[in-house]
């Protein structure tokens, strides 16, 4: 037994979820639980078999897993986000189905339902939205500021590896053991060792700690990149709005992620070493956790939403054919939101014992943060006013966002009143509110950015038919799913409830369940859009690099852009430099001379962090201490060794090769017939836009 304990820690045969359907009484709940485990196992086997059969392991290893190219790292972040979106949506639909049948008890056990709402929230915040926005910032920002790459390319790979390690732990929890039942916030005492002695809270702690470290490093990387890597002439007030929002987001990451890491480590010490930071005994206080978590948690809302605001700014200007209205006010509003985001955390626990004066101060601060957000909405509408608005898929996501997000924001202003918050706290009204903010505000923005920059990533546009279907299904499905929750929340239905006894709730829960079915089809449509786009990619080729008649520097490059981004670092003389250059007839000019381009070499650090970070977390969860020691030692030695020896394999692209590639692309551009915006969605659009520049009245 001692030998087995040393090898496997507290991992036993009964911990294997795929076997539970054979070892325990079989019912619908058990079939779903074990079925999910089998889906992960068989899905992993199928993925390995497919990659082996297609012979893709070598190109993936050589061109992707070890790369430090910011664009490829961004694409891998988005791939991770889509994988986690698949699980997150399925879990959300399962919860809505359970509550649709909640009057009759449903089909899930209370414990299983508690795991579902915990994993759903954790996945959607930390492993879907965060990787999605990190992917978009990796793809667009260095090119928007005229840089070759981020300031620390190897660290970028490390950040991705840590994020993947956290995601792997969340997926492994479907196969080994269970996940936390303490919600995505992991409040003690619900996640304390006395209440949950099992492995669930440990999975949450180590997955979030690893991805939190990765996000902190990403924030540091992009702050330095935007400060130091801007092209000559790219002053702060010539930066694109997306880059501005990413700068503020990166600063928030640097200051907001450490409180989460500190709170997680303190809870780890409570669980593993019998500390008492958050217990009632020996001087502990769980309110310390609540303060630390929300000192991260509310800035986190704006870490998520600010990049989406940047996407909406780019999309609105591009598809209105106008210069972005109120650029200065948008910059100030973005910075105001970033600052105010640190002043509102206490509204998350208005009901937890503060006096009325403290609640009033934080209620006022919460209302104030709505002002700069409103400024942005008005600026986007003013940009559209008298513009030639084209309702492409990204623009449709933007318009739907404006309508739905304003409703969610208004419900947030209502909740900022402590006396009202006392009435609806911990009800489904609150669930409706934050989904009303996060889905249109963040998720729609990520999908708009994904559609907008897809041709820059892969050299062909996404299918529009399936894009429109997906967009409308997301919007209609969201409305049907979450608007009924406002009603039942006001009627008193509490959140995180596996079933209910009030028949008045049933109709609204059935409508919400119908909405969840529409959201399922929206996810299917999103997958179909990608499949059809790849299948028909020859019909939507983007050769010229500017399929939308866009305005910022990333569109002045081929699609997909080369590793070095620009043959020569551009000199910037105006805001929206590419649009101004096209207006002057100088959008596609060969530089006077070329020089060698020096690029960083590939690295194993991202792979090491992903593989051994996952092993380290798994060992900590199951108390397999030999695995913990070996994994941590490998990560530490590799990181320190890489820092000492530096980059031993830098890559130089000769000037002649750069010149040949760039001039060959320019020659292709000259042979392409520029298309008007009426032809934007047609096969004739090969990525060169006809001149239709319009200057907004300022």
UniProtKB/TrEMBL annotation:
Compartment list: Cell membrane
Protein keywords: Cell membrane, Copper, Electron transport, Heme, Iron, Membrane, Metal-binding, Respiratory chain, Transmembrane, Transmembrane helix, Transport
Bilayer-spanning residue ranges: 30-53, 74-97, 117-141, 153-176, 203-224, 244-269, 289-312, 324-346, 358-375, 396-416, 428-454, 466-487, 507-532, 599-618, 624-644
GO CC entries: plasma membrane
Residue ranges occupied by any Cytochrome oxidase subunit I profile domain in the UniProt entry: 55-573
InterPro entries per the UniProt record, alphabetical: Cyt_c_oxase-like_su1_dom, Cyt_c_oxase-like_su1_sf, Cyt_C_Oxase_1, Cyt_c_Oxase_su1_BS
Superkingdom of the source species: Bacteria
CDD domains attached to this UniProt entry: Ubiquinol_Oxidase_I
Any one GO molecular function term: cytochrome bo3 ubiquinol oxidase activity
Predominant localisation class: membrane
Gene Ontology biological-process annotations: aerobic respiration; electron transport coupled proton transport; respiratory electron transport chain
Membrane-topology descriptor: Multi-pass membrane protein
Short name of any one Pfam family annotated for the protein: COX1
PANTHER family named among the record's database cross-references: CYTOCHROME BO(3) UBIQUINOL OXIDASE SUBUNIT 1, CYTOCHROME C OXIDASE SUBUNIT 1
Family: Belongs to the heme-copper respiratory oxidase family.
Name of the protein this chain belongs to: Cytochrome bo3 quinol oxidase subunit 1 apoprotein
Organism the protein comes from: Allgaiera indica
Taxonomic lineage of the native organism: Bacteria, Pseudomonadati, Pseudomonadota, Alphaproteobacteria, Rhodobacterales
């Amino acid at each position: 037994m001692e030998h087995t304990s040393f090898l496997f820690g507290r991992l036993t045969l009964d911990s294997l979820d795929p076997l539970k359907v054979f070892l325990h009484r079989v019912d619908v709940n058990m079939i779903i639980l074990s079925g999910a485990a089998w889906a992960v196992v068989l899905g992993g086997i199928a993925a390995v078999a497919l990659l082996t059969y297609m012979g893709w392991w070598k190109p993936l290893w050589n061109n992707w897993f070890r790369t430090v190219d910011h664009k490829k790292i961004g694409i891998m972040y988005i791939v991770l986000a889509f994988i986690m979106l698949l699980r997150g949506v399925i879990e959300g639909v399962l919860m809505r189905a359970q509550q649709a049948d909640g009057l009759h008890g449903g089909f899930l056990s209370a414990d299983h339902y508690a795991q579902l709402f915990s994993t759903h929230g954790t996945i959607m915040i930390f492993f879907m939205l965060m990787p999605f926005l990190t992917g978009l910032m990796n793809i667009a920002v260095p090119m928007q500021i005229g840089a070759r790459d981020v300031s620390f390319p190897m660290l970028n790979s490390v950040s991705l590896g840590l994020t993947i390690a956290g995601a792997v732990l969340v997926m492994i929890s479907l196969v080994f053991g269970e996940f936390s039942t303490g919600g995505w916030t992991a409040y003690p005492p619900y996640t304390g060792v006395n209440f949950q002695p099992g492995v669930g809270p440990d999975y949450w702690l180590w997955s979030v700690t690893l991805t939190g470290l990765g996000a902190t490093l990403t924030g540091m990387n992009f702050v330095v990149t935007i400060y130091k890597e801007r092209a000559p002439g790219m002053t702060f007030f010539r930066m694109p709005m997306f880059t501005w929002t990413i700068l503020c987001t990166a600063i928030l990451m640097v200051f907001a992620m450490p409180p989460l890491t500190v709170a997680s480590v303190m809870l780890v010490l409570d669980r593993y070493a019998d500390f008492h930071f958050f217990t009632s005994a020996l001087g502990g206080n769980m309110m310390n956790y609540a303060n630390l978590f929300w000192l991260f948690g509310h800035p986190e809302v704006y870490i998520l939403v600010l990049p989406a605001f940047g996407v909406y700014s780019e999309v609105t200007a591009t598809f209105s054919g106008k210069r972005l209205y109120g650029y200065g006010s948008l910059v100030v509003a973005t910075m105001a939101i970033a600052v105010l985001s640190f002043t509102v955390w206490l509204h998350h626990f208005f009901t937890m014992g503060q006096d009325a004066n403290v609640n009033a101060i934080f209620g006022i601060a919460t209302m104030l943060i709505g002002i700069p957000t409103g400024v942005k909405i008005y600026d986007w509408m003013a940009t559209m006013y008298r513009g030639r608005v084209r309702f492409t898929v990204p623009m449709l996501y933007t318009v739907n966002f404006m309508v739905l997000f304003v409703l969610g924001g208004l419900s947030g202003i209502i909740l900022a009143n402590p006396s009202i918050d006392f009435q609806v706290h911990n009800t489904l009204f609150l669930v409706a509110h934050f989904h009303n903010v996060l889905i249109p505000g963040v998720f729609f923005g990520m999908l708009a950015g994904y559609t907008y920059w897809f041709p820059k990533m892969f050299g062909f546009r996404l299918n529009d038919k399936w894009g429109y279907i997906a967009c409308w299904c997301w919007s209609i499905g969201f409305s049907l799913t979450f608007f009924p929750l406002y009603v039942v929340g006001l009627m008193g239905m509490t959140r995180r409830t596996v079933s209910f006894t009030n028949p008045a709730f049933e109709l609204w829960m059935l409508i919400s369940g119908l909405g969840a079915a529409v959201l399922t089809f929206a996810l299917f449509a999103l997958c179909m859009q990608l499949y059809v786009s790849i299948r028909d990619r020859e019909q939507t080729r983007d050769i010229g690099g500017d399929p939308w008649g866009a305005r910022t520097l990333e569109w002045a490059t081929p699609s997909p852009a080369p590793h070095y981004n620009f043959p020569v670092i551009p000199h910037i003389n105006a805001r929206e430099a590419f649009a101004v250059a096209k207006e002057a007839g100088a959008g596609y000019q060969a530089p006077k001379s070329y020089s060698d381009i020096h690029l960083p070499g590939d690295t194993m650090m991202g792979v090491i962090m992903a593989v051994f970070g996952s092993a380290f977390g798994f060992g900590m969860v199951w108390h397999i201490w030999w695995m913990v020691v070996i994994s941590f030692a490998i990560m530490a030695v590799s990181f320190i060794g890489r820092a000492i020896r530096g980059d031993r394999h830098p890559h130089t692209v000769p000037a002649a090769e750069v010149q040949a590639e760039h001039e060959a692309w320019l020659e292709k551009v000259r042979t392409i017939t520029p298309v008007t915006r009426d032809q934007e969605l047609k096969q004739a659009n090969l990525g060169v836009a006809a001149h239709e520049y319009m200057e907004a009245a300022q």
